[in-house]
Amino acid sequence: MNYHIQSYQQYEKARQEAQLNPELFWDKIAQDNFIWKKPWHTTLNYDFSKPEVKWFEGGQLNITENCLDRHLKDRAQQTAIIFEPNDPHSKTEHLSYQDLHQRVCKFANVLQSNGIEKGDRVCLYLPMIPELAVAVLACARIGAIHSVVFAGFSAAALATRIIDCDAKLVITSDGGFRGDKILDLKTIVDRALEDCAMVKTVLLVKRTGNRVVLKPNRDAWIQPQLDSASVDCPAVVMESEDPLFILYTSGSTGQPKGMMHTTGGYMVYSAYTFKNYFQYTEGDVYWCTADIGWITGHSYIVYGPLLNGATTVMFEGVPSYPDFGRFWDIVQKHRVTQFYTAPTAIRTLAKQPLSLVTSRDLSSLKVLGTVGEPINEDAWHWYHEHIGGGKIPVIDTWWQTETGGIMIANLPGIIEAKPTFATKPMPGIQVVLKSEDGQTLEGSAAGSLCIDFPWPSMARTIWGNHNRFRDTYFSTFQGCYFTGDGAIRDDHGNYRITGRVDDVIIVSGHNLGTAPIEDAINEHPQIAESAVVGKPHDIKGQSLCGFVIPKNQSIDASDLLSSVNRLISEEIGPIAKLDQILVVSGLPKTRSGKIMRRILRKIAGGETSNLGDISTLLNPEVVDEIIQQFHQSK
Ligand code: WT7
Questions:
Q1: Is the CB of 404 under 6 A from ligand 1?
Q2: pLDDT digits (tens, 9 = 90+) for 62-86
Q3: For tag attachment on the chain, is the N or C end more exposed, with fewer CB atoms within 10 Å?
Q4: Does the pLDDT of residue 1 top 70, yes or no?
Q5: Domain check: are 268 and 397 in the same one?
C-alpha cells in the first residue's frame, strides 16, 4: 500500500479504514513500506488498564537498516544531512546516505569496543552537530537505548537523567557553539558525573577546541577510535517491542519522566507522519529548527526524514545569530522546501524589521509547520503572509514526547487550515473529548483531550516506573490515554488545543513542570515556600511567575530574582528562569493543604475579580494581599 495521502478523498478513505479496522490499516502500512527481518505474528495486543501496548509482536528489524542501508541502492550519493554550522562563514557539510551509513557503522563499532551491548543505556549530551545524529543512529544500530539530554540542561538535571536510566556511557563534546556563546559541555558533564558512579566511559567529540581535562580510565577522544574502526557493522536484530530510546519530559513531580519508545511502532508512525504532514517528495530539502534533544528532533530531524530517504537540515545555531535574518538566510541558501519551527520563534522573528525577510528569496518553500505550543492568530497570519507569501499551507501540529509523532494537524493542501486550530487527527488516531466527570463529549464541545485507541508510536512506559505511567496517563479517564491538554472541537470536527490542564507550563515551547522549579527555589536560604505559575507572554507564550514566602520578614527583595534564577539555572537550566518574583506572606491553600495555582495563575495574568470561589480556602485573606503585591510590583 502506498502510504502517501494526496487528496481529501484519500484522507477520508484512510481515516475510515483505520477506524473500522486499525490493525489491518497499520498492518498494511508496516508491511509495504519497511524492511523487516522477520514478519510479526500479532499486529496489536493491548490493555489500557495495565497499561500494556504491543505492536507488530514477533516482528524483527533494525531501524537503521530502514534509515540507511535500504537507501544505498538508489540514493547513496544523495545528501541525507545538510549541516549548517553556527558561524555562517564556516563550511556547510553535506553528508550523503553513504557517508552517513559509514559514519554510523564506525561509531557503532566504537560503542561496541567500549563494551556497549544491546539494551545498555547511552546518554548523549551534545550540541547540534552531525555527530549527534550519528550517535543516535549508532546506538540504534547495535540495540543500545539512547537517551539524548538537551545540551541546555544543567549538571544537576543531567545527573538526574543519567541516574534514572542507569547509563553506562556518556557521549559529549569539548564544547558547543550557540550564537556568540560557547557551551562548556565537558565541565557540565564532569560535575554531573560526580554523582553517577554507573558511568564507566565518556567519549568526547572535538568541536570547539576548548581545553578540557580528560579523566584517566574514564574519558577518551572518540576521533582516534573512529579512525581505526571498521565501516562494516552488521545491524543487531531487534524485536519490534525492544526499546529504541528514552527521552525525558517534565511532569508534576520533581522527577522527570523517562518516556520509553520501542522500535517497530515508532518507526512506522514517525515515517508515515513525516511523509504526509510534510508532503515530502523527491528532491525536497526539509528543515526542522528543533534540537535533537527534544522529541521533535528525534522524530522529525532524524528518524522520520531518514526513513523516507529525505534530505534533512541540521542547524547548530540560534535564530538571532549573527542577526535575526539567519533562518531566512538558511532557507535561501539551501532552497528549503519544508520549514518546521515553534510559535515562540515565529513571534520573536515577527518583531524584527520585515526587511530581514523581504531581502531573502523564500520562493523554494512549499509547507510551513509549527509545533510545541498553541499558536496565536497574529503569529499564524504573519507566518502565512510574510514567510509563506500568503500562498503556501501552514500546518499546526499537535503532539507530545509521549505520542512519538504528530497526532492532530491539517495535512497541507488537503485539510483546510483554521488559524489556532490543529484541525483533524491523523488516520488511525481516535481522539475523544472527556468532561470532568468522565463522559465522552459529542459534537462541538470543550473538554480534556484523550486518545481512545493505541497508535504505533505511543510511549510504552516511564522508564523504571510503570505505576507512574499508569497513574499519569491511564487513570484519569477509564480506558483511554489522557494527554494532559484541554481542547475544544468545532462543528466540523476541528480541534483547538487550549493548553495544559495539569502542572506543566510551556515556556518558549519547552515543557516545564512546576514541581522541579519550586524545589529549586526552595533551596534558597531565605525562602520557606514557593509556588510557580505561568502567565501570558508576548513572545514566549507563557513566562514564569514565582510567589515566595520568606523565612523571615526582613528579606531583601531587590536581589531575590537573580539569586533565585541562579539556583534554577543550576538545578534545571536557564530555560526555567523566572520572569517575575513576588514576596508574599502566604499562598492560597485548600483545606487539605494544596496550593491553589488556579488563583495564582489568574492574579499573575492581571485578573483581580473572577477568581472563582475562594471561600473554601484555608486562608482566603491572603488573596487580597497577593493581588496588592502584584499591582505594586508593576
Ligand atoms: C505539549 C507536549 C511534540 C512536540 C514538542 C513538544 C503542547 C505541542 C502543540 C500545538 C498547542 C501544543 C501541548 C502538549 N503542544 N504542540 N500544535 N498546539 N499545544 O513536546 O515537550 O512533550 O510537549 O506541548 O500542551 O501536551 P512536549
A1: no
A2: 999 999 999 999 999 999 999 999 9
A3: C
A4: no
A5: yes
